[in-house]
Design a protein that fits this description.
The protein is mainly alpha-helical. The chain contains nine helices and no strands. Helix 1 crosses helix 2 and helix 5 runs antiparallel to helix 9.
Length: about 200
């Protein structure tokens, strides 16, 4: 029988889960997702490899849990923009800034590894798609408010903004730095939205 290192089984499971995710995140970032196996994660936590299966069915699920954990504060931040910025244009500007901040944060490295999960089961793929959709709800709603009454395609405009953000994020991660990228991104999106 494994030793329980907490006041309750639930607390023990929570602590072990955190240790697994901490170790996996560190190893995925240091070695890459493909170069890290379950044995590496188990060893880093001090568990037998078979013990990992008590917590996660496989490496894909561990990565998904790492991403979900990293995404919680991001999603809370983005959803909080709605109440902090009632004006949709201000909300869009704050959303753009947040995207650049996210792209240049350590959490982004974990998010990028999601692309390495190629053969995920349908349920896992659906969860991944859901994670990508959550941040876009805020921007799409704000764009819809700005474009209300105009004959413009909200989804297309939102997708174009997403493309601008993707390019801007790569620039911010490089030599350009965050502040100038944020300024130019805001200008580009303001031009796209019009007056």
């Amino acid at each position: 029988m494994p030793r329980i290192e907490a006041a309750s089984i639930e607390e023990h499971v929570r602590l072990q889960t955190e240790r697994i995710l901490d170790a996996a995140t560190r190893l995925f970032r240091e070695r890459g997702y493909r170069n890290t196996d379950l044995e590496d994660i188990a060893r880093a936590v001090g568990l037998a490899r078979n013990s990992l299966y008590r917590y996660y069915p496989g490496k894909d699920h561990i990565l998904l849990a790492c991403v979900q954990r990293d995404m919680v504060p991001v999603i809370e931040e983005l959803e909080g923009l709605v109440s902090r910025y009632p004006d949709p244009r201000e909300r869009i500007g704050a959303w753009l800034d947040a995207q650049i901040d996210i792209a240049t944060s350590p959490a982004h490295a974990t998010l990028e590894m999601m692309a390495e999960i190629r053969q995920a089961d349908p349920a896992l793929r659906a969860e991944l798609a859901g994670l990508h959709a959550l941040p876009n709800r805020v921007i799409e709603a704000a764009v819809a408010e700005v474009l209300r009454g105009q004959r413009r395609d909200v989804r297309l405009v939102t997708a174009l903004i997403g493309g601008l953000v993707e390019v801007a994020a790569r620039q911010a991660m490089g030599a350009a730095g965050r502040a100038p990228v944020k300024r130019e991104l805001r200008r580009a999106v303001t031009g796209l939205l019009g007056d």
